[in-house]
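Render this sequence as a predicted structure.
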Amino acid sequence: MRVLIAAAGSRGDVAPYTGLGAGLREAGHEVTVAATAPFAGLVRGAGLDFRELPGRPDRPAGAGGNRALMRTAAAFVTELGQGFADAVDPRTELLLLSATTAPLGLHLAEALGIPAIGTSLQPAAPTGDFPPTVLGTRFLGRTGNRLAGRFALRMTDRVYADAVAALRRRLDLPPLTPAGMRRRQEKAGLRVLHGFSTALVPRPSDWRDGLEVTGTWWPYVAPGQRLPAELEDFLAAGPRPVFVGFGSMAGGHGERLGALVGGALRRAGLRGVVQAGSAGLAVEGDDVLTIGDVPHALLFPRVAAVVHHAGAGTTAATLRAGAPSVPVPVTADQPFWAARLAATGAAGEPVPFAGLTEERLADALDRVVRQQAYARAASAAARHMATEDGVGAVLKALG
C-alpha cells in the first residue's frame, strides 16, 4: 500500500513518524513522509521518501504564552495550507495525518477519494478525565473538562479556518468549515490512533469508538548507531551524569540558561551532559559536556536523571529509559505532559520555565537523583511501556 504520513511542527512533532514509517516499510508498505524542509534529512535517514511541506514553524520561547502560540500557529498553518496539496502524490492510497496536518489533510482525502486515519501524539478529543492539553492542568470537574475540550477544538478551528477555505477552493470542493469537517468525521467514526503510552495517559473512559491509544511511536535509530566517541569517553570517566536539554524550546535564553544550569550542577555535586538545542545552551567545566543532537534512546539509559521541557517525545523517552526527570515545561502541551510524568512518580512537581532558578533546579536535581523512589517509579513505567507495540497497533489498523 502507498502510504503518505503528513506531519508538521517542531522536531518532536515529526521524529516519531520516522519510526512509525520505518515499521510500516518493513511490513511491506511504500511509505513517504511529508514534512517541512528542515526534517528532510531526518526522514531520509530512516530510509523513507520525503515530500516537502511549506512553512517553517517557529514556536515562541514561552514569554508570550498561549496567545503568542496561537498567533504563531495561525501564521504557520496559513503557509502550510497554501502548498499542502502539492505534497500528495495522486497515487497515494492512504493518508496518515498528524494532529497538525489532519485539519487540512482530511479535505485532501475527500478530494482524492482515498481513506485517511488520524495519527496523533496528544489526546485532543474532549474527555471528562482531564482538561485539554493546551489549556493548563487544573481539573475542572468532568463536565468542565469536556466543555473546555470542546472550547479548545473551536480555537483550533479558528486557526485553520482561512487555510481550509483556500485549500477547498483550490481543490474545487464546496465550502466546508473546519468545524463542519470535524463533525462529519466524528459522525463517520474517523479512526484516530494515538501514539503515546498508557503508562502516561490511560485511554479516556468516555472516548467514542475509533479513538485508540497504541503505545509510543519511537523516532528511528539506525541499527548499529553509536554515541559520539567524545560522549562515550565522558560517560566512562565518572559517575552517571545528568542530561539537560530543552529541545526546540527556549530560543534566545541560552546565555542565561547556561549560567543557571552550570551553577545548579555545581550546587548538586553532579556531572552534566548539556544539549545545545535551539537555545544554544552551553556550559563550561570539567564535569560538563555540551553536545548536539543524539538519539535519546541511546543516551537516556545511561544518565542519572533528565532535565527537559516535557515535550511528548522527550517525556516518553525518559520513562522508556527508566530515568527520573525534572520537567521544566515552557508552553503548549508541555505542562500537561509534565503533570502526567509527575503523576507516575518518576518526577517531582514540575518547575515552570518562567520560574526556573539555579536554586530550584539544584534542589530538584538533588531530590530526584538521591531519592530512589523516583528511579523505581520510572523503571516500573519502562516495564509497562515495553509491553506496548505502537507500530504493531497501526499495522493492525491498516488491516
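Summary. The two ends are 11 Å apart (CA to CA). The first strand starts at residue 2 and ends at 6.
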